[in-house]
Amino acid sequence: MLLRHPHVEIKALSGTERTKGRPYGQVYPQYAFESIISANGKQGPSPVRSLPPLCLTEEVDFSQVDTVFCCLPHATTQSIVTSILQSAVGRTPRVIDLSADFRLADVHTYAHWYGTPHRAPDLQAEAVYGLTEFARADIRSARLVANPGCYPTGAQLALVPLIRAQLIALDDVIIDAKSGVTGAGRSAKEANLFCEVTEGMHAYAVANHRHAPEIEQGLSRAAGLGNSGVVVNFTPHLVPMARGILETIYVRCQAGVTPGDLRACLEQAYGEEKFVHVLADPQQVPQTRYVRGSNHVVMNVFPDRLQGRAILVVAFDNIVKGASGQAVQNMNVMMGIPEHTALEQGPLFP
Active site residue: 55, 70, 71, 150, which one? Predict the structure, then answer.
């Protein structure tokens, strides 16, 4: 995304001891054409600029950059972000963190769910939760943005407008979510091997997934209850596809409220949004193939057979709008760049 961003120059890409000094296209061959420089110093096959070789984080001069994307494991980002924001001489970069380290406002909640004390509570207090559609003003002035988790992105986009409008019961929300294997990360794990995943499907982290408190925090804030108060029934599942999330959400309408009212509320909330869409056909069921590889979110509302209840279905790409795409969207807002810049990629199909 950043390679095609007209306002971005990639100054540094950090790696590990094993990969430091190596060309990015050698470690990630799908980007080889982005990093080839011919012998005469001119750009190689790709029309875009070359990528710098991988380096260690401590080798980066952060005073020479405007924005840092942290894509590190949970519980490791806090110390690095602290170092970046405190040690830079000259201009201080603004940070977008894609880990969970700054998403939960309450550091005790973080410690409970992630098994380690939060090491940067002062920074946590100033971090802005970056669900772009709901926090543009705060994101614009923030120096630290916590990029939302994938499951919480879809759940909150579907539910926050309905809760703000007091259309659904707060004590009866069920979120049944399915994700592609990329949701489990890139590290080598036996459970993610092709033969373990293909031709099957399973629930995981039942009643114990770390995204549950993040979802509950967002819904509680929408209800005016602070950072807690709403509790949801959330169960994620792993399905044998590379990417994509489908969330089926069951809610109970408030007295006198119909599923049509829920749909009208979401249409009004997202009518002017670039990336979040209520499908025009009220009978059309969202599918992950509608959004694959794009920053778009599609949703719809259906009446349940149970009286007074409704079913919401949301689809989006977990590693675009659910991660990197939303991070670029947030950077655009922070830097005063048109929000859709470098995010125009349409869905990939087939």
Answer: 150
Distances 252 to 156, 213, 305 between C-alpha atoms, Å: 16, 21, 12
Number of domains within the chain: 2
| Residues 163, 180 contacting (CB under 8 angstroms) | no
Nearest CA-CA partner of 183 in 245, 275, 96: 245
> Other CB atoms closer than 10 Å to residue 180's CB: what's the count?
22
pLDDT at 95: 97
168 and 56 in a common domain: no
- Do 187 and 305 sit in the same domain of this protein? yes
Peptide bond preceding 73 in cis form (omega within 30 of 0) = no
Q: Clarify whether residues 174 and 289 are in a common domain.
A: yes
pLDDT band at 89 (very low <50, low <70, confident <90, very high): low
pLDDT tens string 126-154 = 999 999 999 999 999 999 999 999 999 99
Tell me: pLDDT of 45 over 60. Answer: no
Q: Which CATH number goes with the domain that contains 177?
A: 3.30.360.10
Domain range enclosing 24: 1-60
**Is 55 an active-site residue?**
no
Comparing 50-59, 204-213, 240-249, 250-259, which segment has the lowest mean pLDDT?
A: 50-59
Both 172 and 38 in one domain: the answer is no
CA atoms within 13 A on the CB side of 157: 33
Residue 117 included in any domain: no
Residue at 239 is within a domain: yes
